[in-house]
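Cast an eye over this sequence plus C-alpha cells and walk me through the fold:

***
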Amino acid sequence: MDDKLALLKNLSQKVDTIYITGGNINSIIKSKMESFIKDISSNKASIILMEDGLAANNLDDFPTLKDTYSLSKQGSECFFDIGLKSLNTLQNLINKHSIIFWNGTLGVVEDEKYSSGSELCVKMLQDSINN
C-alpha cells in the first residue's frame, strides 16, 4: 500500500471517485489509515471503501462474508475478495462514470475461491462498453 499512497493522493485531486477494495482495503484497516483517507477525502474525489467481502485468517481457511467495518482491526482476518454489496456499489459507479481506471484485482485471483469478484468486474466493464 505504501507505494500507492502518493498515487491515491494525486488521483484524489483529479478524479471524481476512488473506490478502494482488494488488498488496499486490508492495508487501510490493518494500518489504521483512517486519517489518510479523511485527508484525501477533502480533495476533489469522493473516497468510497468497499462495504463487504470474503474474509479469512489465511488463504487455506474457509472464507466468510464480512462487513468491512466489522472486520477486527486487531484480528488476523483479511479480505481476499470483494462481496456482493460492494460489487453492486461498483456496478453503480461504473454506470455513473465514463472513464474507469482500474488498478489491480479485487481479490486473490490466483485462488479460485477468490477470483469471482474480479471476474465479475471485468464482465461489468465489458457490459458498460457494449451499452
Summary: The helical segments are 2-12, 22-30, 34-41, 84-96, 116-130. The mean pLDDT is 90. The CA atoms of residues 59 and 110 lie 10 Å apart.
